[in-house]
Amino acid sequence: MTPYIAFFGDGEHSFRLTKREIEELQVKCGSGIGAIANRLFARNFTQADINETIRLALIGGGMSPKRAHELIGAYVEGRPLIEPYELAAKILERTLCGNPNERTNTDAS
């Protein structure tokens, strides 16, 4: 799966939740990936659902854990939640459904 590229905080970044990040997300949020996604999509989320989804997707996209933590502190915590909410929801949508514009190996040429 190709990473999701989006503007966050100070510039464009790559976001991807790999198996490793999904497992950590589930531990950090105390729920399975489906329940976390359902909470976000229903706007019944916790702060950890947003923070950890974005932080771990930054790490999965190639960023150092220290830098990802710094960006969450600077651009999510203590600020209105609508922007990071939309980003977290898009990350989970891409993780669960893939990129609708990306061709798969089974597509005809």
Which secondary structure elements does this structure contain, and how are they paired or packed?
Blueprint lengths: L3 E5 L2 E5 L3 H11 L3 H9 L5 H14 L4 H11 L6 H16 L12
Antiparallel strand pairs: 1-2
Helix pairs in contact: 1-3, 2-5, 3-4, 3-5
Short summary:
The chain is mostly helical and 109 residues long.
Explain this structure.
- With 109 residues, the chain is mainly α.
- The protein has one domain (14-95).
- Helices cover 56% and strands 9% of the residues.
- It has helices spanning 19-29, 33-41, 47-60, 65-75, 82-97, and strands spanning 4-8, 11-15.
- A two-stranded antiparallel sheet has the order 1-2.
- Helix 1 runs antiparallel to helix 3, helix 3 (47-60) runs antiparallel to helix 4 (65-75) and helix 3 packs across helix 5.
- The radius of gyration is 14 Å and the shape is globular.
- The two termini are 19 Å apart.
Question: How many domains would you count in the coordinates?
Answer: 1
**CA radius of gyration:** 14 Å
Which structural category fits the helices and strands? mainly alpha
Strand coverage percent: 5-15%
Ends distance = 19 Å
- Work out the number of β strands: 2
Mean pLDDT, all residues: 91
Tell me the helix content. 55-70%
Please write the string of helix (H) and strand (E) elements.
EEHHHHH
Enumerate how many helices there are, as a single number: 5
Rough shape?
Answer: globular
Biggest sheet strand line-up = 1-2
Regions with little confidence, pLDDT below 50 for 5+ residues: none
Largest sheet: 2 strands, antiparallel
